[in-house]
């Protein structure tokens, strides 16, 4: 603006009197002045001024503090650009809104100028257009897609949210947390409550110095603004009178002493092309690669006061998210294909590169089909892994997720005791004495864990509530990810108490319930963008960022680097919910004399599950159910015993058993007669006992063996495919204690609870799982196990385990 004023002053030198007379005539007569004969001397002075002004205006076109807002109309058909202070130098208002074509042109001109004259990321645009439902901004759609235009409000409620965004910008600017600028464009605001207009006025008063510029169309009383008044009357020809800008007046009067035209309607292809060019520029500046998420100095972060990770960029620059006291837990939502898995990988690899394994422990749970977390574990083709990962569940069972939550709860209790011993009350203070790692537990599709209204769901809800409330004090953080959190029956009474602790809300495209009900920000973003809201999803507190796609080469290189730097850290425990398990994969320490191995526990440690065959009464095993895996589990049990020197006597009533591990065999027709002649120290393995058709005498012999056998080292491992036949053979309720161990397959809880107890009424059988009951060891409802199957059914390696405790610590 100073350059423009200087040019006018120089051009007017020597003809002040003529220029003053011209101004007086124009002010008095308006357009009529141009129909009255004018002194040639005045026209010459006007031409001199116009030429100088036009040249100066062209030089000032790229100044971000000045806006070409129309054209000043002179004699002889001449016009010169109207330049007004804008951006950091002033607001602009009009007396009519964008339903007038010239005002709509002004809106688009102002946005393109403001965006184009600032560095990418230096300006955020928020719009309000209630009268035309956003039509004023429609030609600028590429800028909205790129996130430069963050929101366009088309109703009163959304308009209030847009104003709240601008108010937050001022607050953040005052606090020194933002340095970018916001342009609040009110294209139209029909039937707005007075309180909303007053809020806009307050923004105009304080915003100029604190990061907000207002273009208020239809708001002629806007404070600290140059105002363009539409001139009424038949001779006005749609022209405008503009008041003096408060910070840089045109002259001594109240307004410019010449009529003004609204900006001309530009070629639509120019607007579309310019919007696309600026959008592509913004996208390029806002785009990070996956490699950019990895810090230049790996493992340099200090977790004492929180964890920080770079996830992408927005219009203001890089976006860093934190796990700390203010945002201890994250709730992440997004539809299938919306980029949720990519976002989680960005976050977790960013954390793993920034913090050492001794400072960060990851527990990763994926409850649905997918490969979300296979990038953290060894595979057949790539043995590298992320050493921060302590336990990983791929297509996890609900019970496995529950086991992880129990472990985290126990860890909080342990840390609480240690903190009391040291007399400290925060995790940061605890780190001064012992370097416990911060824990991040990610549960993808966590709603599966809470499905239904059974014991697993109710215990999981209780544990989640405890972790959500207390976790921040002990360095334990949750990330719950899902397509939706609505309709989860187990959460009906606890939803507010749990999710109220999740102030960090992260919404990807298609997220429906992560943000507040009146916040539709997730509906306005595209693939590769994410809405970050640290106010519990409240409308007006959103930040839209663009995050990168993953890069398999960078991920592999990071795994190798971390593996080389931490050779002493074992691979994580991995639970593959979809894979069978096999006895051949049992570790040497798991094969013990007198222990019949049957499968793997669905637990954090993934220990081998089995039955100890000692001399206590009742140490026999019944495999119950018609599922063929029962026969295969019995084969594994026989092999595990025979491999440790136990004599195994096998009998097969099914004709399908693999008896190669047996020391001796007995023909099915000779089984009943042999029951009274079993040598001491023998384990009988019997397949299909329901088909043995034992008569009363044989049943009595069997019952006698069950009662007296353990004392002399004789044990029965029997597979009954029908539950009724099993209870008949052992003598019903009278023989209940004579068989202490059972592996229950496809028999529902309602069928077995009468024999084993009411605590098993909720057992629901499913493929590839079994319930292991041991009356002498169980205090609850048994153990869920994955029964061993034959190797020929193997589709891929089974679970892998590392040594060490689930959560290790080091002293500083």
Automatic annotation (TrEMBL):
<keyword id="KW-0067">ATP-binding</keyword>
<keyword id="KW-0547">Nucleotide-binding</keyword>
<feature type="binding site">
    <location>
        <begin position="334"/>
        <end position="341"/>
    </location>
    <ligand>
        <name>ATP</name>
    </ligand>
</feature>
<dbReference type="InterPro" id="IPR002543">
    <property type="entry name" value="FtsK_dom"/>
</dbReference>
<dbReference type="Pfam" id="PF01580">
    <property type="entry name" value="FtsK_SpoIIIE"/>
</dbReference>
<feature type="domain" description="FtsK">
    <location>
        <begin position="316"/>
        <end position="517"/>
    </location>
</feature>
<dbReference type="InterPro" id="IPR050206">
    <property type="entry name" value="FtsK/SpoIIIE/SftA"/>
</dbReference>
<feature type="region of interest" description="Disordered">
    <location>
        <begin position="789"/>
        <end position="812"/>
    </location>
</feature>
<protein>
    <submittedName>
        <fullName>FtsK/SpoIIIE domain-containing protein</fullName>
    </submittedName>
</protein>
<dbReference type="InterPro" id="IPR027417">
    <property type="entry name" value="P-loop_NTPase"/>
</dbReference>
<dbReference type="GO" id="GO:0003677">
    <property type="term" value="F:DNA binding"/>
</dbReference>
<dbReference type="GO" id="GO:0005524">
    <property type="term" value="F:ATP binding"/>
</dbReference>
């Amino acid at each position: 603006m100073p350059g423009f004023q200087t040019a006018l002053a120089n051009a007017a030198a020597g003809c002040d009197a003529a220029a003053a007379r011209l101004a007086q005539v124009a002010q008095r007569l308006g357009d009529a002045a141009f129909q009255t004969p004018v002194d040639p001397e005045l026209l010459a002075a006007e031409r001199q001024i116009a030429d100088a002004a036009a040249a100066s205006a062209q030089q000032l076109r790229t100044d971000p503090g000045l806006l070409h807002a129309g054209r000043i109309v002179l004699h002889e058909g001449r016009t010169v650009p109207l330049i007004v202070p804008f951006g950091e130098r002033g607001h602009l208002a009009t007396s009519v809104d964008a339903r007038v074509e010239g005002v709509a042109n002004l809106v688009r001109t102002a946005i393109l100028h403001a965006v184009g004259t600032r560095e990418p990321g230096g300006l955020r645009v928020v719009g309000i257009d209630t009268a035309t439902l956003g039509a004023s901004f429609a030609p600028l759609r590429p800028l909205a897609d790129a996130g430069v235009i963050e929101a366009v409000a088309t109703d009163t409620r959304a308009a209030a949210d847009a104003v709240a965004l601008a108010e937050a910008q001022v607050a953040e600017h005052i606090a020194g947390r933002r340095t970018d600028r916001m342009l609040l464009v009110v294209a139209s605001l029909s039937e707005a409550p007075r309180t909303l207009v007053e809020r806009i006025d307050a923004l105009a008063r304080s915003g100029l110095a604190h990061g907000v510029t207002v273009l208020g169309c239809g708001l002629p009383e806007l404070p600290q603004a140059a105002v363009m008044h539409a001139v009424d009357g038949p001779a006005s020809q749609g022209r405008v009178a503009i008041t003096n800008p408060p910070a840089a007046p045109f002259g001594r009067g109240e307004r410019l002493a010449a009529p003004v035209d609204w900006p001309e309607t530009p070629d639509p292809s120019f607007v579309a092309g310019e919007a696309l060019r600026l959008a592509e520029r913004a996208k390029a500046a806002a785009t990070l690669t996956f490699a950019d998420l990895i810090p230049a100095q790996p493992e340099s972060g200090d977790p004492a006061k929180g964890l920080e990770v770079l996830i992408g960029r927005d219009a203001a620059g890089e976006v860093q998210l934190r796990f700390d006291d203010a945002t201890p837990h994250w709730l992440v939502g997004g539809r299938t294909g919306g980029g949720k898995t990519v976002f989680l990988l960005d976050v977790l690899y960013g954390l793993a590169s920034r913090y050492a394994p001794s400072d960060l422990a990851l527990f990763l749970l994926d409850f649905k089909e997918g490969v979300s977390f296979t990038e953290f574990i060894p595979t057949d083709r790539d043995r590298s892994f992320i050493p921060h990962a302590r336990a990983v569940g791929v297509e996890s069972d609900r019970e496995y997720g529950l086991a992880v939550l129990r472990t985290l709860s126990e860890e909080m209790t342990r840390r609480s005791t240690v903190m009391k011993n040291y007399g400290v009350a925060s995790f940061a203070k605890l780190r001064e004495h012992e370097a416990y790692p911060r824990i991040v537990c990610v549960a993808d599709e966590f709603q599966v864990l809470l499905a239904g209204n059974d014991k697993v769901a109710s215990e999981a809800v209780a544990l989640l509530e405890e972790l959500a409330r207390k976790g921040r004090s002990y360095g334990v953080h949750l990330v719950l990810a899902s397509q939706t959190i609505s309709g989860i029956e187990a959460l009906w009474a606890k939803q507010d108490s749990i999710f109220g602790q999740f102030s960090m809300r992260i919404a990807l495209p298609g997220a429906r319930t992560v943000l507040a009900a009146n916040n539709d920000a997730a509906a306005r973003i595209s693939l590769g963008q994410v809405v970050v809201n640290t106010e519990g999803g409240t409308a007006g507190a959103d930040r839209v960022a663009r995050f990168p796609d993953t890069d398999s080469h960078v991920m592999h290189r990071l795994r190798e680097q971390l593996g080389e730097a931490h050779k002493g850290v074992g691979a994580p425990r991995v639970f593959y919910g979809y894979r069978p398990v096999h006895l051949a994969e049992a570790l040497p320490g798991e094969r013990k004399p007198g222990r019949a191995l049957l499968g793997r526990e669905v637990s954090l440690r993934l220990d081998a599950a089995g039955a100890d065959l000692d001399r206590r009464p009742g140490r026999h095993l019944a495999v119950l159910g018609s599922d063929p895996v029962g026969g295969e589990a019995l084969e594994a049990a026989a092999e595990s015993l025979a491999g440790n020197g136990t004599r195994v006597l096998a009998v097969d009533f099914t004709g399908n058993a693999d008896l190669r591990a047996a020391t001796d065999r007995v023909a099915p027709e000779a089984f009943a007669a042999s029951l009274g002649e079993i040598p001491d120290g023998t384990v009988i393995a019997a397949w299909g006992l329901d088909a043995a058709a034992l008569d009363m005498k044989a049943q009595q012999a069997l019952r006698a063996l069950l009662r007296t056998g353990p004392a002399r080292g004789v044990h029965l491992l029997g597979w009954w495919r029908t539950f009724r036949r099993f209870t008949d053979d052992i003598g019903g309720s009278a023989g209940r204690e004579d068989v202490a161990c059972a592996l229950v397959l496809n028999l529902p809880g309602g069928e077995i609870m009468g024999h084993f107890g009411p605590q098993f009424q909720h057992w629901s059988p499913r493929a590839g799982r079994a319930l292991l009951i041991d009356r002498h060891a169980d205090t609850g409802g048994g153990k869920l196990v994955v029964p061993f199957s034959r190797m020929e059914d193997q589709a891929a390696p089974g679970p892998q385990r590392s040594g060490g405790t689930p959560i290790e610590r080091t002293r500083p």
